[in-house]
Write a structure and sequence with these properties.
Elements (H helix, E strand, L loop, with lengths): L20 E6 L5 H13 L4 E6 L4 H11 L8 E5 L8 E4 L2 E5 L6 H17 L5 E6 L1 H5 L4 H18 L2 E7 L5 H8 L4 E7 L5 E6 L9 E2 L1
Helix pairs in contact: 3-5, 5-6
């Protein structure tokens, strides 16, 4: 089992089944990306493998930021799939991390290939446990339609299940209509919702992982 409760204090996150995929949903600037990175970093500190699929930050920035979170990060412990389309379609290494370049956030086949290679690299280095973060599905949805993204998430969830890894995926709830959010949500085992509150700060709740949705809790 995977324990997220050290990152986000909910009992529902204490025993997350290997193979689970969790959607992190919230409006812009609500801390979704940082939460996803914190989930990966928390595992990496205990030796888990980590894979980041980025649609905004360049791979070099992702590796640097992740090393700031996990200074003891080992060689071959991190894989990054850079979907910004600025580095061609090459694969290589950046500061000890495997990096796969994809032509655009809409190249879901290329992204899938990169993820497979990253997972194989982690497996070959002896990482039997690992976590993947995809930031963000909203960018993908500007390049392709919701049904295609849903199918991609469903296939990727099966791949993570086979590996015994877990995945967290972010989506900007304020950037899409309710129908799109509902379609995408169906591809996931659980949901972490974030929201801003009028008094300042943020709240979170967890759905789908332990029966009834949890109550909203201040972060």
């Amino acid at each position: 089992m995977y324990d997220f409760s050290t990152v986000l204090d909910f009992d529902a996150l204490q025993s997350v089944r290997p193979g689970s995929s969790i959607l992190i949903s919230g409006p812009a600037m609500s801390g979704k990306e940082r939460l996803a990175y914190d989930v990966l970093a928390d595992g990496a500190r205990d030796g888990d493998g980590a894979v980041v699929v980025t649609t905004s930050d360049q791979a070099k920035t992702v590796v640097s930021d992740f090393r700031d979170l996990v200074p003891e990060l080992e060689e071959s412990q991190l894989g990054v799939i850079d979907c910004r389309g600025e580095g061609g379609t090459d694969s290589g290494s950046v500061d000890g991390a495997y990096v796969h370049q994809v032509s655009s956030p809409g190249d879901l086949t290329g992204i899938g290939i990169g993820i497979t290679k990253a997972l194989e690299g982690l497996h070959n280095s002896g990482r039997e446990r690992g976590r993947l973060a995809l930031v963000s599905l909203s960018t993908m949805l500007t390049y392709t339609d919701k049904k295609t993204v849903f199918k991609f998430c469903h296939v990727l969830s099966s791949r993570l299940d086979s590996a015994g890894y877990i995945g967290v995926f972010t989506i900007d709830s304020s950037a899409h209509d309710e129908q799109t959010i509902q379609v995408i949500k169906q591809a996931f085992d659980g949901l972490i919702e974030l929201r801003d509150v009028e008094t300042g700060g943020r709240e979170a709740r967890v759905l789908g992982l332990s029966g009834e949705p949890t109550a909203w809790k201040q972060l």
